[in-house]
Each structure stands twice: as C-alpha cells, then as structure tokens.
From TrEMBL:
It comes from the Bacteria. InterPro entries: IolE/XylAMocC-like, Xyl_isomerase-like_sf, Xyl_isomerase-like_TIM-brl. This is 3-dehydroshikimate dehydratase. Gene3D superfamilies: Divalent-metal-dependent TIM barrel enzymes. Pfam families: AP_endonuc_2. Residues 22-246 form the Xylose isomerase-like TIM barrel domain.
Amino acid sequence: MRVSLCTISFRHHLLSIGEIARFARGSGFDGIELWGVHARNLGPGDHGEWLAAYGLRVPMLSDYLPLDAAPELLSERTAGLCRLAEQWRSPRLRTFAGTKGSAATSPEERALIASRLRMAAGHVADHGMRLLVETHPNTLADTTASLMRLLEEVDHPALKVNFDALHVWEGGDDPLAVHDRLGAHIDYYHLKNVRARSDLSVFDPANVYAAAGRREGMTGLFEGALDYRSFLDSLHPNAEASLEWFGDACSSVLPADLLALRNVTARRRNELAFQMDIAG
C-alpha cells in the first residue's frame, strides 16, 4: 500500500515544500498529496522531477472546482488545475460534488452539478488524468445512495471516487459494505479517525481551516471510533491512500500513524501468505 501525507496538514505551519518533502521522506511516506492552493502558490516548473529526487510523488492534487459557476469559469479553473497536475506529474484531481447536501439539493441543482462534473471529467481525461469526487458531508456524495446515483448520472469513465471511510461512517453507512458496492469506482482513500461520533463536528471546514479551530476529538488512526484494522483488510495491496491529519503535532502523529499502518498491513500480508502456504 502506498501512503502519502497531505500538505493541508501543514496549512497553519511556516514550512517550505522542501521541508515537507524532507519530512515525508524521512518518515517513510511514498508521496505528498498537494493542496490546490499550495500548488498554485508554488509557481510553474517541473516540480514532479524535483520531488522524484526525494523518492516521492504527488498521487493527487486536491482542490474544489466551482461546479455551479459559469461553464467558462469552470473550464478555466479545470484547465489550470490540469496544468498544475502536469507540473507535479499527478494522475488525479480531487474535488467535492457541490456544496450542498443531497437532501437539500433540488433536481435542477443536481442535474447542473452532474453535467458540470461530466464536463470537468472530460477535460481531465483529455490530459490523461482522473477526476475524483470525495465522500463528504454537505455534498452530493454524502450518502452511498446519492453517490451511486451521481456516478450513473455523470456516466464518465474518468470520474472516480476518493473514499473517505470516516465520512462514509458519518453519513450512516457501513464503510465495508459501501466499499464492496463501489468497487472499481474507488481510486484513492483518505484515512483519518475521530474519538467519538459526537466529535465529528471538528471536521467541519470552518473549524478545520480556522487557525484557532478546535482540535480535540481528532485522534490517531487506530485510536478512534472507526475500526480501521477491519477496513484495511478489505483493501487491495496496491491501494493508494493519504493520512489526512488536521490536528496538532503533525511531526509526531503522522510518522506514528504511518508506522502503525505499515505494521497492520504487513501483519495481514503475513497472515495471508501463511494461509496460502497451508492451503498449498
């Protein structure tokens, strides 16, 4: 399993991309998921080649396409993100499926978001990339039923899913069951955990992006309410994911979570190998 860290974890830190790259390499990460605003402010250049010298890559550039804006603006923004992704040699762009929950979205609004996602997916596909919508509250991917319907409505092979297990659980669905239903639609994973369901509000965007926002309730990957050991067992060994940490103490929590993740997945691989030896 290839695991990256997210530059959004360092949104309130005064660190250069070089410092983050050295931290990622030293901690054993495989790559860096780049936040769109960070990518735009790093300027042009073949950044992918520079990052490869660290043994790292950008598996996904994460941003927020203005799906309800005028088509010209959406096209301009999508083209700009594709150029940035090419500079970083990233195969994926991540966006949210609108800015309103599925229950609060009218049929006309839903049709508009679906058509704009289809348009954006076409632009992204022309650049040899994939467009991912994230399972997330207050979007059209806030429940499994709405997300499955959206994938059918958009009906474009370049549109995939960034599977955030915690948000799937937050929406009231079983992550393992949803994972089986979505199957090949899933192209990437975000991994994070929370102390208890009552603490889920700590991930509200207004709180996450606020420098003085509340961080209590954010917890290590294997210390929270969601059972990641069972979930990780369901993933393909070549799956790609990011540890999406929004809390304090990035320099200690991220390496600790990565080590625990590596240990859990290695133990599972060994168990499977042992079972195959016995069966053989």
